[in-house]
């Protein structure tokens, strides 16, 4: 009779993840990350702090705009700023990013304009930002689908011989999707230059991560033949160093890498969610003490790289950006509904023209109904 193997203990805490900053902002050594972190330039350190603060402020503004009826939906990212800002700053401008819907910080770090944060969530466009300028695919709402897109793009990089990589961002919930697992299979088989960044924020809507996986998510990737690293997702320097390592592996032709950044979603899954129905306040309070911005600010102050004046200056810049985002949202001109068919194909064709005629007639029917009412 076969005896089942014992189930490995799933450490839901972040204590076993690689880090270089403790929750108290103290610098600690890490043999894996230190070679890739080196001695960061003070300008980079200040930029990491600034971008995290700006991301949190834009996120708060997006949440408020949705509550005020200006946006249809908003996916908050408070608490996940270190993952997004740290990893993005480790990339080159030519690298192609495939984000999920929660990567507000990635959009910011790539240089988004104020309107590019909100107009898609307002329903004004398929994607609010210029994908070519930001080198970033549209935010993907279909869970995990873009992992395949990133893998396919990375295989194209191989064939073109280009000096760039592809990066896919997704949450812990996406690892249960077939698309993500298929992407892991293909990327490993073809040794594609792609990095998978899994922001393990502990909850896939109302389902905790230990229901989805009996082992740490980073432990899954080696089963596909993909090296992985589990890092403290609230440590921006750890996330930066981990991505530098993963990116260099891809550039050297060593194939894909899987990064699990252990973090926490402080707010709801989206503005349509109520996390108080499935999370207890004590859990949230524990993670509040691991806040990524507070941790990094403490470290920068101890290094003499940040003071009260600098903090106030960044806060003012964040308020200015939030005001610009609000103005861009409220001042947006609603486009005619038929324009939803614009930019679907690179070149127009007869089938698209027929769909446009039919949809225009459909929309005209609503106008006739309103006039007769």
Question: What is the radius of gyration?
Answer: 22 Å
State the secondary-structure class.
Answer: alpha/beta
Number of strands: 7
| Element string (H = helix, E = strand) | HHHEHHHEHEEEHEHEHHHH
- Order of strands, main sheet, comes to 1-2-3-7-6
Outline the biggest β-sheet.
Answer: 5 strands, parallel
General description of the model:
The protein has helices at 34-37, 42-67, 81-89, 104-109, 131-134, 145-160, 178-190, 209-212, 236-251, 281-288, 292-302, 308-330, 350-372; strands at 96-98, 166-171, 194-200, 203-204, 207-208, 228-232, 257-262. It is α/β, with parallel strands linked by helices and 373 residues long. β2 (166-171), α7 (178-190) and β3 (194-200) form a beta-alpha-beta unit. It is globular, with a radius of gyration of 22 Å. 43% of the residues are buried. The model is unreliable at 4-12 (pLDDT under 50).
Question: Layout of helices and strands, plus pairs?
Answer:
Blueprint: H1 34-37, H2 42-67, H3 81-89, E1 96-98, H4 104-109, H5 131-134, H6 145-160, E2 166-171, H7 178-190, E3 194-200, E4 203-204, E5 207-208, H8 209-212, E6 228-232, H9 236-251, E7 257-262, H10 281-288, H11 292-302, H12 308-330, H13 350-372
Parallel strand pairs: 1-2, 2-3, 3-7, 6-7
Antiparallel strand pairs: 4-5
Helix pairs in contact: 2-3, 2-11, 2-12, 3-9, 6-7
Keywords for this structure?
alpha/beta, two-stranded antiparallel ribbon, globular, 373 residues, 13 helices, 5-stranded parallel β-sheet
């Amino acid at each position: 009779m076969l005896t089942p193997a014992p189930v490995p203990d799933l450490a839901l805490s972040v204590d076993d993840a690689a880090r270089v900053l403790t929750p108290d902002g103290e610098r600690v050594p890490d043999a894996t990350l230190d070679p890739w972190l080196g001695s960061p330039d003070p300008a980079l350190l200040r930029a990491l702090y600034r971008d995290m603060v700006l991301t949190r402020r834009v996120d708060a503004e997006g949440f408020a705009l949705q509550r005020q009826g200006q946006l249809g939906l908003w996916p908050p990212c408070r608490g996940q700023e270190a993952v997004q800002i740290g990893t993005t700053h480790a990339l080159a401008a030519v690298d192609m990013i495939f984000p999920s819907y929660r990567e507000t910080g990635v959009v910011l770090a790539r240089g988004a304009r104020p309107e590019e944060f909100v107009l898609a969530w307002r329903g004004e466009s398929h994607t609010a930002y210029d994908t070519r300028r930001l080198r970033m695919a549209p935010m993907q709402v279909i869970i995990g689908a873009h992992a395949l897109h990133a893998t396919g793009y990375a295989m194209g990089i191989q064939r073109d011989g280009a000096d760039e990589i592809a990066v896919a961002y997704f949450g812990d919930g996406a690892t249960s999707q077939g698309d993500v697992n298929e992407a892991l299979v293909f990327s490993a088989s073809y040794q594609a230059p792609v990095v998978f960044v899994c922001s393990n924020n502990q909850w896939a809507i109302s389902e905790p991560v230990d229901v989805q996986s009996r082992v740490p998510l980073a432990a899954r990737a080696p089963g596909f033949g993909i090296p992985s690293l589990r890092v403290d997702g609230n440590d921006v320097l750890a996330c930066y160093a981990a991505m530098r390592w993963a990116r260099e592996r891809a550039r050297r032709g060593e194939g894909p890498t899987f990064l699990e950044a252990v973090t926490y979603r402080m707010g709801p899954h989206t503005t349509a969610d109520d996390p108080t129905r499935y999370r207890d306040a004590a859990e949230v309070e524990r993670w509040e003490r691991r806040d990524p911005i507070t941790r990094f600010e403490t470290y920068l102050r101890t290094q003499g790289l940040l003071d009260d004046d600098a903090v106030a200056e960044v806060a003012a810049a964040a308020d200015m950006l939030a005001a610009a985002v609000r103005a861009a949202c409220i001042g947006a001109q609603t486009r005619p509904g038929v324009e939803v068919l614009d930019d679907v194909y690179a070149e127009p064709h007869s089938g698209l023209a027929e769909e446009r005629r039919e949809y225009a007639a459909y929309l005209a029917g609503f106008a006739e109904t309103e006039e007769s009412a």
